[in-house]
Design goal:
This protein is an alpha/beta fold. The chain has ten helices and seven strands. Helix 3 links the parallel strand 2 and strand 3.
Length: 265
């Protein structure tokens, strides 16, 4: 059973893009790396982090790679910059030569790799000795409230939704889980911190409609549901989401970011 679908950059952006962009800015501010570096953005998806690197960090180059051809095609059309290239590549078998990059990053993708530890070590093989490996993942269990509210409602209506809930599926997306993971690699000097944003919705429909995109975990789960289940989840969310007096919805969202260095110096 495929628990995710990543076949449309446009639909993914509709669901997650605005929050990905906010997180990318927070992440790069936290990394605080100098200009002129060679970056690789692994699991780049629709290319948002790659684009923000180009805008924020004045890099020498950015290579965005993802296993989804559809996502890469979208990124090539919509994230056009002179210093960005996009290509399909398997994060578990990167084909680049050693020391091809100064920085390897992965935004909201590490937990979806078949073996995150081997993925991190793959990243380290293609950056220079002492280069930076950095990632961030949603805090599915407690921090990403726009997701937590959805899964709480879905599981209350349909206990089978538990199989799709990222908090259950990805125990590595906690400080303890990430520290344990990085300690199992040959990376050094790792540090972890929280990235905090607010996900704001102009009204309930602005929250609900992107969930119908079919892209990612929650939308893919909904796409499998019958109309009665979808209607019941919608009704429960409509009753439980906190709505401001103006009709807007604001939900805090936290991701965990980790940076480390490749060995060799």
């Amino acid at each position: 059973m495929a628990l995710e679908q990543w076949t449309s950059g446009g639909d993914y952006d509709r669901w997650m893009g605005r929050w990905s962009r906010l997180l990318a800015h927070e992440f790069l501010h936290w990394l605080n790396l100098p200009p002129g570096l060679r970056w690789i953005d692994v699991c780049c998806g629709s290319g948002i982090l790659s684009e923000v690197i180009a805008e924020f960090n004045s890099p020498a180059s950015v290579a965005g790679v993802d296993i989804s051809r559809e996502q890469i095609d979208f990124a090539r059309r919509h994230r056009v910059r002179n210093n960005i290239t996009f290509e399909t590549a398997d994060a578990m078998a990167l084909h680049f030569a050693p020391a091809s990059f100064d920085v390897a990053v992965c935004g909201l993708g590490l937990n979806y790799l078949p073996d995150p530890r081997k993925g991190l070590e793959q990243f380290a093989t293609i950056i220079k000795p002492g280069g930076t490996v950095a990632i961030y993942v949603w805090d599915y269990e407690r921090g990403a409230r726009f997701l937590r509210e959805f899964w709480n409602a879905a599981v209350a209506v349909d206990p089978d939704a538990t199989a799709f809930d990222q908090a259950r599926r990805f125990p590595l997306c906690t400080p303890d889980g990430l520290c344990t993971l990085f300690a199992q690699t040959n990376l050094t000097d790792f540090a972890i911190d929280a990235l905090n944003i607010v996900t704001g919705f102009s009204n309930f429909d602005d929250y609900w409609e992107p969930l119908l995109s079919g892209q990612g975990s929650a939308p893919n789960y909904l796409a499998r549901c019958d109309s009665h289940t979808i209607g019941s989840i919608r009704e429960r969310l409509s009753a439980t989401l906190p709505v401001n007096a103006s009709g807007t919805i604001e939900l805090p969202a936290r991701a965990w970011a980790v940076r480390a260095r490749s060995p060799g110096i």
